[in-house]
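User: My advisor asked me to double-check a structure prediction for L-asparaginase before group meeting. I don't want to rely on an old file, so could you generate it fresh from this sequence?
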Amino acid sequence: MNKIAVIYMGGTFGCVGSPLTPMSAPIFLEKLQHLYLSRMQQLDFFAAPTIKDSSELNARDWLELSFFIQTLSKQYQNFVLIHGTDTLHYAAAFLHHIFADTIHLIITGSQYPLFKQTGENLYSNSDAWDNLNFALNSISSLKAGVYLGFQHTLYHANSCYKVHTQELKAFTGLETTTYQSSHSLNALKHLETAHLELAQKLRILNYYLSPESAKNITFNLDALRQNPPNILILQTFGCGNLAYTTELKDVLNALIQSGCWIIISSQVLYGELSHQYAAGSWLADLDLVFDPHHSQADLYARAVILYLQHHQQQNWQKYWLI
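Assistant: Sure, here is a fresh prediction for L-asparaginase from the sequence you gave:
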């Protein structure tokens, strides 16, 4: 039976006290290991390089985690990652684009802590125990790849959304019972520790457009020209629609010329983007790209990982859907 590396990265799962705070990794892992002393599987427990509330995590943390998993993969092929739920789906998509099908990995977490506030006994109303055991029991039956496991359901890692702050069924996405092409960048071989600093400094602006005049939208975007983000995501309407004006087109072009990557996405969760409406077709004339629309977490991961590799190239757009 293949051994499993269980990696703890913080989050609600290992929180104690009031307000809830992640338990220190050595103490938590010792308690967790004690709970699994009688289990038939060989489980080895590790602390991730960064232990945080997941709302504090960013691309550098997940890239550093990827290098950590890469090192462990010399001895392990099966991984279960315990992660906070706030950004669990972002981590899942990020790791999907890093590893593709080179390892078996399930990322899980919980809506409620594993232990009571004192940290001494299991919290009986928690979903943590079930979620971790579900992941451990599922990992050996999956084909290689990265998955999100939660509330007795396995999802393709780059398809997920967090949909509830408190309910146990916190995530939705494309379940593994439905076939999905990988769509992974398989980027591990293109990244190195030198990219960590850039990942830390990377500035992303995700602009969720409101129904207002094109003049106001232009004004807001024009304010970015003095200090543009590295990546600007425009959450447009419908299948990628945004009211046209010459002024708006000029501002977008100016941002692109400054080196800002612009990505068109949609506020609608599902369905492909298209250029069938005049209200959106003009965007295709600009040197920007369109979200393949697997999920917002997938968009984030794809944008970040490609930027780390190709930020100095003027024709970066050609790599977008590779």
